[in-house]
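Two records follow; treat each independently.
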Amino acid sequence: SSGINAEWPLRPGKLKDLTLYNNQISCLENMDNLDNLHVFSIGNNNLSQMDNIVYLRKFKELKCLNVAGNPFAEGDYKSYVVAHLPAITYLDFRLVSNQMREESIAQYQDAIDVIEHNERDEQKIKEKERKRIAEDLQLREAFVDGLKGESLFDDLFTEDVDGPKLNQLPQMVEAYDLYKSKFCKICEELVTFGLKEYESREKEKSLFLAAVNKAKEADKGLGVAAINEFLAYKKKVLTELGQISDPRVIDAKISELQEELNNVWDVLMGYELQLAEQLEEVNKDFERTMSDMSGTFTETVQNYFTQCRELELMHHDKLTETALLIMEKVVKNELEEELPEDLRLLFVDKDTITNAVNTSHDLHNQKIDNKEDDIITRVGNTKESYNVRISEGEVGRNRHRVAEINHFLENIREELEQYENLDR
């Protein structure tokens, strides 16, 4: 291939030194994830365009560059490279002097000004896109995505062929605008409410995690104190044993140490049982809180969507009334204004226009219902999955802690058995 393959090693952001020397590369591309690139050797390739150097401006950590042996690397190419990559310290294995850097930048100042201006514009676009993605993510986590601005209202008409035509009737324009304004206002209120509830849920999660971590830290402190006390006692006993020759006394001391080890096991298991019970209570309280918040949120969401359906019904009634009046005038040949051809086709008879109006209404209600169902389903699923993760996490933590305690005691017992066997 004449370009650079995008398949980099795992964690490309960690890559600092990259050598692609002596290949057939004619274009620098697919390197955007190499944020931490310090050293890059691309010498003896087929790079003929200086634009490849401009591409390297995105690597802010790049200090050492080798491009010698490429078609473009002839004549005064070094000034171009240094001017466009001002952070470069070594070029083609030679130190870039301050004088060369200043002269090179001065030589290409106008071109660099244009590039920097374009880079600032690109950065603004990227920042705007980053904010949009972050906002979309927050709206989704708040369960109010697809509701901001005119999103849901516009979605009502995506599959509605006749509704937009009917709403352009002179008698319906004002009613349609009022319907749209009120509908979007309800959606905006729901978005505001959803974001506020999202912040409340996140606060509750933070308080919950803080309580869990506090309990764990307290348990850890008690456990470490108990273990350190035992290890100090063990060290004291083993030191004493080094000065005792009577086997019976040695056996008695080791038995005492083993008994103390059993006591430590009881203490550590007691602490773990106490922590497990404490965390179970904290988890239950949190689950109840989240369940109450989810219930309140769901009920409020349903109220907002009920308002949306009421607005849709009112608009439907107005559209039905208007359409039938026009139909009546068409039949009597009393309609003064000229209808567009696509609209006139809907007014061929009463059944046709009634079906068109009702179909539009049904589609709108379906969109509203689907969005409401989507939100309520996701709220319930998210609550349940979070509760499951908490429960499974606690079970895993408890098993790991019990295994840790048993492993510690087994190691001590093996040590005492070895000491006992050595003595015999």
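The next record belongs to a different protein.
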Amino acid sequence: GLRDSLVKILQDYKLQVNLNEGYKRVFVNDTVTLGKNMRSMARRGTHIDESTTCQLCTNPLIQEQEAFLGDVTVFFCGHAYHNDTCLRGREFCVSCVKS
């Protein structure tokens, strides 16, 4: 009767607590792993040469015959833009936001 019901309730509660602790461990581990991956990505460089084009206008970011075409922004995702003509003060990757 009542005793069996209370025992069952306590067992279910203990199971819920154990599951919650397991979820918390997984969440913390995933958060640490994602943080490490993000730091690793932020440390990588992006190579820009004459063949690298702006993601919006598709013109080369740099050209050998011209000394300076203006500032260029390269985001962590690797997409690059001309600041003045294409990016126009945006602080996010236009290509990544579209997808």
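Discussion point: The longest strand covers residues 72-74. How would you locate this feature using only the token line?
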